[in-house]
Prior knowledge:
Helix content: 25-40%
Strand content: 15-25%
Structural class: alpha/beta
Amino acid sequence: xxxxxxxxxxxxxxxxxxxxxxxxxxxxxxxxxxxxxxxxxxxxxxxxxxxxxxxxxxxxxxxxxxxxxxxxxxxxxxxxxxxxxxxxxxxxxxxxxxxxxxxxxxxxxxxxxxxxxxxxxxxxxxxxxxxxxxxxxxxxxxxxxxxxxxxxxxxxxxxxxxxxxxxxxxxxxxxxxxxxxxxxxxxxxxxxxxxxxxxxxxxxxxxxxxxxxxxxxxxxxxxxxxxxxxxxxxxxxxxxxxxxxxxxxxxxxxxxxxxxxxxxxxxxxxxxxxxxxxxxxxxxxxxxxxxxxxxxxxxxxxxxxxxxxxxxxxxxxxxxxxxxxxxxxxxxxxxxxxxxxx
Length: 342
């Protein structure tokens, strides 16, 4: 890809200009470049503008989290980072753009867990989630909590499953849309627990939570923050968190494995990827800075404000994580017949 093509105003497949572009600059001139003033990095992205593609809408949880982290990354690098929301087709447009970019460290994809479900929703993708990306680093996970109305009188996930099995086909579960993280978390739990139910999709979290509060819909896996006040006042009962570790926000709530349902966990995560064949020297240096930023106490506090928690692992470990997710998501989507609403 030529420099001219990289610098022109980006468009989606319909020719529309992307819906948001933000330039994040270093806080001051002459910032020390920690470990990045290496010869290897100098041959790549050092001193150049970095374009970070967010394949989700501006203002979404993934977008806000990515921008917050990248602002600090720009300061640490002493470089300008342009953040663009390149949306459409379930994030395939933005992801596809980075998959075809030059592997010089100047293009990043700030993707979420949809990275491992797109191949099963969009069979005609012109990129592969493993072969056509270089993992830079995991950033954060947003735990989802399984909630029910306190009026149900159910206190544990095991009690709920017993109830669901005793009332086959009568249980309902909300989501923020077909194929969304909230839907996939519920389906993974339902399949692993072995009960039948009816999916009730909503346009967003508030609508679904309202129906659960009234008891008209039985349960919902949603991010913790929107539900927190209702958990604290006793209107909602948190039965389990979707992640394989307990949430710092609800430390007394067990994981699904702890509740008796191993291999039912679902991680809603955010991570950074580069184009394929990005040199390890460049990817490793970007990983080091990104990892350091996420570890900072101030950043951990900011992430908590979004309901997110640091998700830190080596590049190799994250590669293995992606491969495991693909092996889990494919059969789950095939078995349940889930279709993406986008």
